[in-house]
Amino acid sequence: MKEVIPPCNESDHGHVEEALPPASLERAARLFRAMGDAARLRILGVLENGELCVTEIVAAVGEKFSTVSQRLRILRQEGLIARRRDGNHIYYALADRHVADLILNALAHANELDAAPATATQEGED
Protein backbone atom coordinates (compact mmCIF):
# COMPACT_ATOMS: atom_id res chain seq x y z
CA MET A 1 0.00 0.00 0.00
CA LYS A 2 1.35 3.39 -0.97
CA GLU A 3 2.13 5.78 1.91
CA VAL A 4 0.01 8.92 1.90
CA ILE A 5 2.13 12.07 2.13
CA PRO A 6 0.44 15.03 3.79
CA PRO A 7 0.19 18.16 1.62
CA CYS A 8 1.83 20.36 4.27
CA ASN A 9 4.91 20.49 6.47
CA GLU A 10 5.17 20.98 10.22
CA SER A 11 6.78 24.36 9.59
CA ASP A 12 3.60 25.51 7.78
CA HIS A 13 1.81 25.65 11.13
CA GLY A 14 2.41 27.35 14.45
CA HIS A 15 4.13 25.81 17.40
CA VAL A 16 2.96 22.30 18.15
CA GLU A 17 2.63 21.59 21.86
CA GLU A 18 4.72 18.76 23.25
CA ALA A 19 2.89 15.54 23.93
CA LEU A 20 1.45 15.07 27.38
CA PRO A 21 3.42 12.81 29.72
CA PRO A 22 2.50 9.14 29.17
CA ALA A 23 1.69 8.66 32.86
CA SER A 24 -0.84 11.52 32.73
CA LEU A 25 -2.45 10.11 29.60
CA GLU A 26 -2.76 6.65 31.16
CA ARG A 27 -4.24 8.11 34.37
CA ALA A 28 -6.79 10.12 32.38
CA ALA A 29 -7.68 7.02 30.34
CA ARG A 30 -8.36 5.11 33.59
CA LEU A 31 -10.65 7.92 34.74
CA PHE A 32 -12.61 7.74 31.50
CA ARG A 33 -12.82 3.93 31.72
CA ALA A 34 -14.22 4.19 35.25
CA MET A 35 -16.78 6.76 34.12
CA GLY A 36 -17.44 4.85 30.88
CA ASP A 37 -20.01 2.54 32.44
CA ALA A 38 -23.58 3.91 32.48
CA ALA A 39 -24.32 2.47 35.94
CA ARG A 40 -21.21 4.05 37.47
CA LEU A 41 -21.96 7.30 35.68
CA ARG A 42 -25.46 7.21 37.19
CA ILE A 43 -23.92 6.94 40.68
CA LEU A 44 -21.67 9.90 39.93
CA GLY A 45 -24.72 11.83 38.76
CA VAL A 46 -26.57 11.05 41.98
CA LEU A 47 -23.56 12.29 43.97
CA GLU A 48 -23.56 15.53 41.95
CA ASN A 49 -26.25 16.75 44.35
CA GLY A 50 -24.06 16.17 47.41
CA GLU A 51 -22.80 13.60 49.86
CA LEU A 52 -24.94 10.49 50.39
CA CYS A 53 -24.89 7.41 52.60
CA VAL A 54 -24.48 4.07 50.79
CA THR A 55 -28.08 3.18 51.64
CA GLU A 56 -29.29 6.37 49.97
CA ILE A 57 -27.22 5.62 46.85
CA VAL A 58 -28.64 2.07 46.69
CA ALA A 59 -32.19 3.46 46.90
CA ALA A 60 -31.47 6.16 44.30
CA VAL A 61 -30.11 3.76 41.67
CA GLY A 62 -32.40 0.82 42.51
CA GLU A 63 -29.71 -1.86 42.58
CA LYS A 64 -28.47 -4.40 45.09
CA PHE A 65 -26.19 -3.19 47.86
CA SER A 66 -23.35 -5.50 46.75
CA THR A 67 -23.53 -4.23 43.17
CA VAL A 68 -23.45 -0.60 44.25
CA SER A 69 -20.57 -1.32 46.64
CA GLN A 70 -18.48 -2.77 43.80
CA ARG A 71 -19.18 0.24 41.62
CA LEU A 72 -18.31 2.61 44.45
CA ARG A 73 -15.04 0.73 44.99
CA ILE A 74 -14.02 1.25 41.35
CA LEU A 75 -14.94 4.93 41.44
CA ARG A 76 -13.03 5.43 44.68
CA GLN A 77 -9.97 3.54 43.39
CA GLU A 78 -9.76 5.96 40.47
CA GLY A 79 -10.10 8.99 42.72
CA LEU A 80 -13.50 10.05 41.37
CA ILE A 81 -15.25 9.84 44.74
CA ALA A 82 -14.24 10.21 48.36
CA ARG A 83 -15.72 8.48 51.39
CA ARG A 84 -15.97 9.22 55.06
CA ARG A 85 -17.22 7.20 57.98
CA ASP A 86 -19.58 8.55 60.63
CA GLY A 87 -20.35 5.80 63.13
CA ASN A 88 -22.00 2.95 61.24
CA HIS A 89 -22.60 5.06 58.14
CA ILE A 90 -20.27 5.47 55.19
CA TYR A 91 -20.84 8.58 53.10
CA TYR A 92 -19.68 9.16 49.56
CA ALA A 93 -19.21 12.38 47.63
CA LEU A 94 -17.59 13.47 44.39
CA ALA A 95 -13.86 13.87 44.93
CA ASP A 96 -13.80 17.48 43.74
CA ARG A 97 -15.29 20.01 41.34
CA HIS A 98 -13.28 18.57 38.42
CA VAL A 99 -15.29 15.35 38.61
CA ALA A 100 -18.57 17.27 38.63
CA ASP A 101 -17.40 19.29 35.62
CA LEU A 102 -16.41 16.12 33.72
CA ILE A 103 -19.85 14.60 34.30
CA LEU A 104 -21.75 17.75 33.40
CA ASN A 105 -19.68 18.32 30.26
CA ALA A 106 -20.03 14.71 29.12
CA LEU A 107 -23.79 14.72 29.62
CA ALA A 108 -24.19 18.12 27.95
CA HIS A 109 -22.18 16.92 24.96
CA ALA A 110 -24.18 13.67 24.77
CA ASN A 111 -27.42 15.66 24.82
CA GLU A 112 -26.16 17.91 22.02
CA LEU A 113 -25.23 14.89 19.92
CA ASP A 114 -28.63 13.30 20.51
CA ALA A 115 -30.44 16.52 19.63
CA ALA A 116 -28.47 17.28 16.46
CA PRO A 117 -29.56 15.65 13.20
CA ALA A 118 -26.97 13.24 11.86
CA THR A 119 -24.93 14.69 9.02
CA ALA A 120 -23.48 12.75 6.14
CA THR A 121 -20.03 13.14 7.72
CA GLN A 122 -21.15 11.74 11.09
CA GLU A 123 -22.90 8.81 9.47
CA GLY A 124 -19.82 7.85 7.44
CA GLU A 125 -17.35 7.98 10.36
CA ASP A 126 -16.12 4.88 12.15
Measured as a percent range, the helix fraction is 40-55%
Give the amount of beta strand, in percent. Answer: 5-15%
Q: What is the H/E string?
A: HHEHHEEHH
Task: Tell me the CATH topology.
Answer: Arc Repressor Mutant, subunit A
Inertia-based shape = elongated
Q: Please list the strands of the largest sheet in the order they lie side by side.
A: 1-3-2
- The overall average pLDDT, rounded, is 89
Please name the fourth-level CATH homologous superfamily.
Winged helix-like DNA-binding domain superfamily/Winged helix DNA-binding domain
> Which structural class fits the helix and strand makeup?
mainly alpha
List the main descriptive attributes of the protein structure presented here.
6 helices; elongated; 126 residues; 3 strands
Give a concise summary.
By secondary structure, the chain is mainly alpha-helical.
Describe the structure.
With 126 residues, this protein is mainly alpha-helical. The chain has a single domain, classed as Winged helix-like DNA-binding domain superfamily/Winged helix DNA-binding domain (Arc Repressor Mutant, subunit A, Orthogonal Bundle), CATH 1.10.10.10. Helices cover 55% and strands 11% of the residues. The chain has six helices and three strands. The protein has a three-stranded antiparallel beta sheet. The longest helix is centred in the C-terminal third of the chain and has 19 residues, at 97-115. The mean pLDDT is 89.
